[in-house]
């Protein structure tokens, strides 16, 4: 790559949102809305039950209570992709925690007290918690009227079953593949439901203004997504809904779409527009919030001995979506078309199912099904390599997609400017010193090993999703940037400001970016902050807007300086005639138009605008054919672990992540890498929402649902960004990096564990209890030998 | 001091000023600070003493304010980040946190800022292990801690 000369881009520019340090930054729980009422929900204690009667009379008597709402108040279903959710459970409650009533009161205390006095009579019904059980023909049905639900055109629900959506992908012929295969590996992998563990519990407030406008404050990654989905769900025009931007205390996908905003909205409508707020606490976040789904992957993969090529892959991928499938349907799709990872496989057959169970509902989780699929697929790869007697890195190199030549199983061509998958794998191998055996610890009960996996990210977004930006000049020559991007911590606003300053060659301080002082009515549209797309998509809109502004500056300056617009360049805060630097206008002289000495003025304020829409993508047809991807960020991740055979504890001694993309801001990019890696490692080792046999959550809080602490970070972590190719339309070649680093850690750790002690764990998380249990099952002699050794010493 | 309605009068020094509040015997300090005294930098992540986003300096020590009853806080001194405004320490903390990207969503950040302040004031010679140990009391789901730890180290190193 040639030497780049940038003023700001690629530099470690300090963050500017320092109001987060002082407590000025306001989150949903911090804002005061005068006259706001509190909402408290009442959840079902049963996983599946008919609601016979709800007696609200005692609750209504509590002083301060304004209303007690139940399902009867809202006799319709809502949902954006598929209309399968009750506002409050109507005839039946579908999981433990399913909200059946909502108390609205002057104070939280009164609401809490009244919620305890709501009396509900239930008739328990048969229920199903396991997705595989739920797919059986005689399973209790969660949605007997599934066939009548309204849904978007690309979804295929199977009426009379618990299958909310079925996705199919077919390429080549499995029969041909099976004939060619010398080695066939058939396995089943499982991952549990997870809590995203954003530190800020979700909350929202709403009121209806006297002109009929619905005003919403919400902890959301996508104020526009909330507006769109709410409008669609409630049959209200978008123009009547205004969603305010707020600081968001972590989202990781959970806050990316409509959450429970409809509850305060509908309550406010019932209460003459009075503001109503619903702020969940941590336990409620577990019961009423949205989680990562559970997954089951059944895979059968065959390879040839002669050249180590994979010749077929057949998979049944099951996405356990919980009691509602609204967003799960799309995720079920994505695991389908991601099917074979970054490998070129001629014959592919995939069925993916989105399946209802009597559990809380689920939604996107950072890295949108990739981490989960890699957990299965990359273990499958190591098992195949071992059966073929090949080195796992070598085996992967032989099967990787070839940019420019291969296609995805959907038929989309792998673009050359996406980067170099082989390059990232080789670099990760170098960094982990692949081939050099780790030094074994002195304690006989501890073993070390390394593993390496591919973990690319191909963000999926609807093919028509748009975003836009406005840059306007101020009197003093400074620039305001207005976009619809939600700042959820990733620092996009900082990166966008750097782009504007870079293009106009002005000091960074002269760019002001709208942060939370926005709402959906005064901001250009943006879909939402997800799919690692903020910098990529919005960055392009911003660059177009700046370009538009520059054209206007040149046009105006050319009239004043009486030269051709093409001979003007913009630098150092001036419009300068090339080669004649004494002929120049300061940006502040043209910002509001130009005033000639006689007072005559031209043009007025300069405002640039730009829009973006994906160029390369299409929808997928019924056989899974189409172009789902704008780009792929290739990544490989490697670990060296140490396992304690007696306790089952796994320590990460070294973690290596290589991603093939340049970045905009170095320290922000590293922040995404460190944060993503620790989350991915913790997901691998600890995280699981545990349910008892009646569908009740056993660990609804951080006491028993453990997220990583500072002491849990790997002993050494190496992050490297390659820039083998600059993605054609990406701003400064930078692809998304918000998710790719969550990546392949669960797969890498599982593979390393196998390489260390020969125990293969196909079920996440690899918690100490599970590791010990699997050692006892798969390698009982390991323990016995250690005990003997210890006894003998 | 007990009132007739079961509420208790509590006097405490908050960010340098004496404050008097009337509270129920079971009111948590976090609620008093947020709701009665308007100190919204004190965040509520769990209320079970796990996340540490409610950390304040309580008689000079980092303490989780969801685990303290306001009634016990009579005569005590409390500092939140609002109380650091304008101080030299806060200027330095702002600089090292921004330079190191030591925050993302910002929800855990006031707690870590207080930790930095405490290190500077009370443990300016803390070793890396002591910094790590102290950091273990506050959760952050965004950053992976690496850049926070770096910022904390730089906050107390006078280079
Ligand atoms: S709110 Fe106090 S520790 Fe979490
Ligand atoms: S910055 Fe988000 S929790 Fe720490």
Report on the structure:
Chain A is of the alpha+beta class. Helices cover 26% and strands 23% of the residues of chain A. Chain A has 19 helices and 30 strands. Chain A has a seven-stranded mixed beta sheet, sandwiched between helices. The longest helix of chain A has 28 residues, at 534-561. Chain B is an alpha+beta fold and 159 residues long. Chain B folds into two domains: 8-77, Beta-grasp domain (Ubiquitin-like (UB roll)), CATH 3.10.20; 86-157, Orthogonal Bundle (DNA polymerase, domain 1). Chain B contains five helices and five strands, in the order E-E-H-E-E-E-H-H-H-H. Chain B has a five-stranded mixed beta sheet with strand order 2-1-5-3-4, sandwiched between helices. The longest helix of chain B is centred in the last third of the chain and has 14 residues, at 109-122. At the A-B interface, helix 1 and helix 16 of A face helix 2, helix 3, helix 4 and helix 5 of B. The complex binds FE2/S2 (inorganic) cluster (2 copies). The site of one FE2/S2 (inorganic) cluster (FES) has 12 residues of chain B, from loops. One FE2/S2 (inorganic) cluster sits between chains B (103-109, 140-143) and A (199, 250, 489). Chain B: Residues 8-84 form the 2Fe-2S ferredoxin-type domain. Chain B: It comes from Fervidicoccus fontis. Chain B: GO terms for molecular function: 2 iron, 2 sulfur cluster binding; metal ion binding; oxidoreductase activity.
């Amino acid at each position: 790559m040639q030497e780049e000369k940038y003023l700001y881009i690629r530099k470690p520019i300090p963050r500017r949102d320092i109001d987060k340090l002082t407590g000025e930054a306001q989150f949903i729980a911090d804002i005061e809305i005068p006259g706001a009422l509190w909402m408290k929900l009442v959840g079902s204690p049963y996983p599946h039950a008919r609601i016979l009667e709800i007696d609200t009379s005692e609750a209504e008597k509590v002083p301060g209570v304004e209303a007690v709402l139940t399902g009867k108040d809202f006799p319709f279903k809502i949902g954006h992709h598929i209309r399968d959710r009750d506002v409050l459970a109507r005839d039946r409650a579908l999981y433990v925690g399913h909200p059946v009533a909502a108390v609205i009161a002057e104070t939280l205390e009164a609401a809490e007290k009244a919620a305890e006095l709501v009396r509900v009579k239930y008739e328990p019904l048969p229920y199903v918690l396991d997705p595989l059980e739920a797919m059986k023909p005689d399973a209790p049905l969660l949605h007997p009227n599934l066939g009548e639900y309204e849904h978007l055109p690309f979804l295929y629900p199977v009426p009379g079953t618990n299958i909310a959506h079925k996705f199919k992908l077919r390429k080549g012929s499995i029969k041909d593949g099976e004939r060619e295969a010398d080695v066939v590996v058939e396995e089943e992998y499982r991952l549990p439901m997870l809590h995203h563990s954003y530190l800020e519990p979700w909350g929202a407030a709403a009121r209806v203004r006297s002109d009929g406008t619905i005003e919403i404050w919400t902890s959301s990654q996508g104020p526009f997504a909330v507006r769109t989905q709410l409008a669609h769900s409630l049959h209200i025009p978008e123009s009547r809904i205004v969603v305010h931007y707020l600081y968001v205390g972590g989202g990781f996908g959970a806050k990316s779409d409509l959450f429970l905003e409809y509850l305060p909205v509908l309550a406010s409508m019932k209460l003459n527009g009075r503001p109503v707020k619903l702020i969940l606490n941590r336990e409620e976040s577990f019961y009423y919030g949205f989680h990562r789904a559970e997954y089951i992957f059944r895979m059968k993969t065959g390879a040839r001995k002669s050249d180590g090529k994979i010749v077929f892959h057949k998979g049944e991928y099951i996405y356990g979506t919980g009691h509602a499938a609204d967003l799960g349907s799309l995720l079920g799709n994505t695991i389908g078309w991601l099917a074979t990872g970054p490998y070129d496989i001629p014959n592919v057959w995939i069925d993916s199912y989105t399946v209802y169970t009597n559990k809380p509902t689920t939604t996107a989780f950072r890295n949108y099904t990739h981490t989960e699929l890699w957990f299965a697929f990359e273990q499958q790869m190591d098992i195949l390599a071992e059966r073929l007697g090949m080195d796992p890195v070598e085996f992967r190199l032989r099967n990787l997609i070839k940019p420019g030549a291969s296609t995805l199983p959907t038929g989309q061509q792998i673009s050359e400017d996406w980067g170099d998958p082989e390059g990232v794998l080789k670099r990760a191998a170098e960094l982990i010193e692949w081939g050099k055996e780790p030094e074994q610890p002195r304690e006989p009960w501890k073993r070390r090993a390394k593993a390496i996996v591919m973990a690319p990210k191909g963000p999926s977004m609807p093919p028509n999703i748009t975003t836009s930006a406005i840059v306007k000049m101020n009197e003093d020559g400074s620039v305001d940037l207005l976009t619809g991007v939600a700042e959820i911590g990733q620092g996009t606003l900082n990166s966008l400001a750097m782009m504007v300053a870079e293009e106009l060659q002005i000091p960074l301080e002269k760019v002001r970016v709208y942060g939370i002082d926005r709402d959906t009515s005064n901001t250009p549209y943006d879909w939402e902050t997800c799919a690692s797309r903020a910098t990529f998509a919005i960055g392009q809109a911003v660059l177009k807007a700046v370009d538009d502004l520059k054209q206007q500056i040149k046009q105006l300056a050319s009239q004043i300086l009486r030269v051709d617009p093409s001979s003007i360049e913009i630098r150092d805060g001036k419009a300068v005639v090339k080669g004649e630097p004494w002929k120049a206008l300061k940006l502040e002289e043209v910002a509001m138009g130009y005033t000639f000495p006689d007072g005559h003025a031209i043009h007025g304020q300069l405002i640039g605008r730009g829009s973006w829409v994906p160029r390369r993508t299409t929808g997928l047809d019924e056989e899974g054919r189409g172009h789902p991807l704008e780009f792929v960020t290739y990544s490989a991740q490697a670990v060296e672990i140490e396992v304690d055979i007696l306790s089952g504890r796994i320590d990460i001694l070294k973690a290596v992540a290589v991603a093939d993309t340049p970045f905009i801001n170095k320290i922000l990019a590293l922040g995404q890498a460190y944060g993503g890696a620790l989350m991915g490692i913790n997901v691998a080792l600890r995280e699981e929402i545990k349910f008892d046999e009646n569908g009740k959550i056993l660990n609804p809080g951080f006491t028993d649902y453990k997220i990583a602490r500072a002491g849990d970070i790997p002993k050494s972590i190496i992050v490297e960004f390659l820039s083998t190719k600059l993605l054609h339309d990406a701003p400064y070649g930078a692809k998304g990096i918000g998710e790719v680093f969550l990546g392949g850690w669960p797969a890498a750790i599982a593979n390393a564990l196998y390489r260390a002690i020969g125990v293969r764990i196909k079920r996440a998380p690899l918690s100490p209890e599970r590791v010990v249990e699997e050692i006892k099952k798969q390698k009982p002699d390991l323990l016995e030998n250690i005990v003997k050794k210890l006894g003998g010493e | 001091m007990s009132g007739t309605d079961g509420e208790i009068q509590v006097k405490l020094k908050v960010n340098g000023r004496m404050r008097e509040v009337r509270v129920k015997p079971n009111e948590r300090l976090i609620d008093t600070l947020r709701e009665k005294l308007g100190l919204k930098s004190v965040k509520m992540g769990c209320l079970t003493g796990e996340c540490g986003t409610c950390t304040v300096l309580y008689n000079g020590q980092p303490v989780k304010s969801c685990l303290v009853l306001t009634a016990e806080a009579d005569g005590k001194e409390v500092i939140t980040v609002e109380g650091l405004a304008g101080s030299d320490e806060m200027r330095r903390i702002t600089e090292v946190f921004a330079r190191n990207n030591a925050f993302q969503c910002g929800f855990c950040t006031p707690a870590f800022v207080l930790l930095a302040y405490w290190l500077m004031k009370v443990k300016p010679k803390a070793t890396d292990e002591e910094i790590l140990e102290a950091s273990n009391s506050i959760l952050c789901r965004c950053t992976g801690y690496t850049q926070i730890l770096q910022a904390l180290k730089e906050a107390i190193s006078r280079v």
